[in-house]
Amino acid sequence: MISLSRTALSLFTAAGCALLSTAAFAENTIKVVETGEGGGTMGLSLEPATVKAGATVFSVHNAAVGEEHEMIVVRLKSADQKIPLEVTKHRVDESKLKSLGEVEDLKPGADGQLKTRLKAGTYLVFCNIKGHYEAGMQDKLTVTP
Ligand SMILES: [Cu+2]
């Protein structure tokens, strides 16, 4: 009886370890949905918009019908940092921000993924195709320790 329950216990532990290693990369999964067509209102939503520090997968979906989008993740120096704009180009000045990576050229209806490790702080998630940031394609992500 004792040896049987030991076997059961070790099986249980092995199963537990397998589960842990599968989930090892994705402590957080953030769903990002991008919407909007050229000349109209555009949007970018994060679900959830607050996560704990750690390995994170951004799973991006471009829900637009005819418009290409992209997703860039930058870490801000503070929650109220002013976002630098290249006014005449209608884009965010990425050279003045610390990028953690991006998903480029996301066709209408397409999905993309960005894997990164997030430290505590405030992040800006946005689309930097001309005019899209100004049209509403941005949201802030809060990462807690
Ligand atoms: Cu866009």
Automatic annotation (TrEMBL):
UniProt keyword Metal-binding present: yes
InterPro entries assigned to the protein according to its UniProt record, in alphabetical order: BlueCu_1 (IPR000923), Cupredoxin (IPR008972)
Record key words, sorted: Copper, Metal-binding, Signal
PROSITE patterns per record: PROKAR_LIPOPROTEIN (PS51257)
Signal peptide as annotated in the record: 1-26
Pfam families recorded: Copper-bind (PF00127)
Domain (Blue (type 1) copper) ranges: 34-143
SUPFAM superfamilies (UniProt xref): Cupredoxins
GO molecular function, one term: electron transfer activity
UniProt-recorded name of the protein: Copper resistance protein
Lineage summary: Bacteria, Pseudomonadati, Pseudomonadota, Alphaproteobacteria, Hyphomicrobiales
